[in-house]
Amino acid sequence: MPHFLPITLEEVKRLGWESVDVVLVSGDAYVDHPSFGTAVIGRTLEAAGYRVAIIPQPNWRDDLRDFRKFGRPRLFFGVTSGAMDSMVNHYTAARRLRHDDAYTPGGQAGFRPDRATYVYTRILKQIYPDVPVVIAGIEASMRRLAHYDYWDDKLFPSILIDTPADLLNYGMGERTTLKIARLIESGKWRDESGELCEEVRGLPQVAYSLTPDPSPIGEGSGCPLHTIPLSNRRGTGGEAVEVRLLHSFEECQRSKRCEAENYQIIERESNKIECATLIQKHGDRYVVVNPPEPPMTTEEIDASFDLPYMRLPHPKYKKRGTIPAFEMIRWSVNTHRGCFGGCSFCTISAHQGKQIASRSEASILREVELITQDPDFHGVLTDLGGPSANMWRMKGKNQELCKKCARYSCSMPTMCKNLDSDHRPMINLLRKVASHPKVKHLYVGSGIRCDLFSLTPSPSPIGEGSRMQGVTAPLSNRRGVGGESDNHGWDYFREVVLHHTSGRLKVAPEHTSDHVLAMMRKPSFELFRETKRRFDEICREAGLRYQLIPYFISSHPGCRLEDMADLALKMKQMGYRLEQIQDFTPTPMTLSTEMYYTGIDPTTMRPVYVATTPGDKADQRRLFFFYKPEMRGEIVRSLRRAGLEKYIAKLYPGKG
Predict the structure, then answer these.
(1) Which of 1, 284, 626, 643 has the greatest number of beta carbons closer than 10 A?
(2) How far apart are CA 150 and CA 154, in angstroms?
């Protein structure tokens, strides 16, 4: 019988359970849908035969009864702040408190604490000191090692040092969660010395802290590039795993250069399929981060999405209003996980991985069928995509080469020759989903990576006459800018513009200055110009009055006021009045954040300009709104202070 995972003791009793195996504690309201991590982990454990209950958004201010309601779980507590980092959820880039929360009924703020993972873990260990607590989710995952905290403006130690958590499961955690449950069930958790037992310490995709015998760490190995083989560490094939000893937390507190050097290693290792174990000393303890699981297979990710989700928020929330985050994704379909784009400011590859884990076409179509059976569905699918719209089924042609690769991106600064970037499967998928008799409109809401397109589209795009015709065979004489065969990217773009756009297609050039874009690891602004040219041409030929909407970021490391003035001028010349903009917010474990904190580019170890003061950030952000009369006076004054009068004359003729 279909049911929600229980969130009340009454529901547990109705299921006939006398106790619970695993209790998941989350900063989000409980939505039983594959886009919400707590539901995914809960359903994964349930499918393996475990009894799982959820404590969503517990009250941490009262007598803590929410944390006690299910009693002591047989195996462990799993803790997450939710689908978002709680600090990003709570505060703007200007560190102002937000007044809403998209993951709470009615969009109400105030139902989770700051640093929710920290708070929940401390409470659970206070009440149940001997019950294992496993932390996971984006907040824990990105704080697995020493990291800069923007909200307190200082370097923080690993979350494993600041909380009493026993184990951290980073990234997408279905596989590892099951392994943890089985080890605890078999009685393997801590040894006689009180440290985690060897089987737990050997799990992939976990982090933990310990006070070890100094010998395995290596004497005199303060250099972060020192490689230490540990005989008891083995990879999936039984091979010895490398270990990288990072600069200690205390060294990084004293030297920002040490922190930048650490990040250089952390990122390089996280980009690999087969990477090293990372170890960082914090006082008398060591934080150990084991290599991740291999990328999920199509069969595994299908199994995760095919679990018996109710695909709705728990009925307990009906009187409190809708959950905005659920409403946003309710009629959308996720096609894949992971991203190989490598953007400096993004956490996706560090959390989901650089390799793409794609669902099968059959699994995607099954989900479409489920959605169309919902009595509230009115024929509009709002998205078919993932972290990016157009990476589904993309991977290296030779996976052995991928295993040795440490590139941060498969598409930047140039397209990898080993990447299979053929867009025809996505075109066919769009057409199959759109042809469902109950689907009136299918839109692509995820961001499109135009840097994945080869330059020359086919002269006769994807069949004449009917959009439902099959994709034409590749033409051997069609070549891209580097001589590569056309990957039908611009054909995909045409398909999206003509048939899967609501009238406003969003893309993310992020900036107009090429040197800022290089710091962001984004392509030249010329790509946006080319994209707009093709967009306008498609719309003109089809008689459509659609808009191409760009996203931009201000105050990113490397961006000066002059770069923002240049952005404003280019937008004026192109006829844009910007809407989709944001001020850069540093979040843990991104290259951009390391540059913001250290003032150093970890990839080159060279100094980087960073706008850090509220005044400098406000001056940059204001230039997005150059067209607003009320902004003109402040913009002119800030440009004059910076000696940039030449932009005043161009933005506001007669004001120079």
Answers:
(1) 626
(2) 7
